[in-house]
Amino acid sequence: MEGVDRIVREVLSAAERHDLPALKGLLHPYLHWSEPRIELRGRVKVLARLAAAPPPGPPTMYELRDGQIYRWTST
Predict the structure, then answer these.
(1) How high is the mean pLDDT of the chain?
(2) Strand partners, 61
(3) Which of 74, 22, 2 is nearest to 11 (CA)?
(4) Domains of the chain
(5) C-alpha–C-alpha distance, residues 57 and 55, integer Å
(6) Nearest to 5 by CA among 74, 49, 61
(7) Beta 27-35 vs 68-73: how paired, if at all?
(8) Order of strands, edge to edge, in the sheet holding 27-35?
């Protein structure tokens, strides 16, 4: 995952481990999450998706706010 920022690597690693406490610290409360056929808003909804589904791939675009992922887009 060379070229991917540290926080993205941490999110992907925590999602792979289903480490919800770690993800909670990495994801902004007002998170915007987009994947093909999935649009979610809010950390609680995204955490539920990550707990119930295979881990996501790296984003094609993301935005940080207050040191947390605020916007995550995968295509």
Answers:
(1) 93
(2) 73
(3) 22
(4) 6-73 (3.10.450.50)
(5) 7
(6) 61
(7) parallel
(8) 38-41, 27-35, 68-73, 61-65
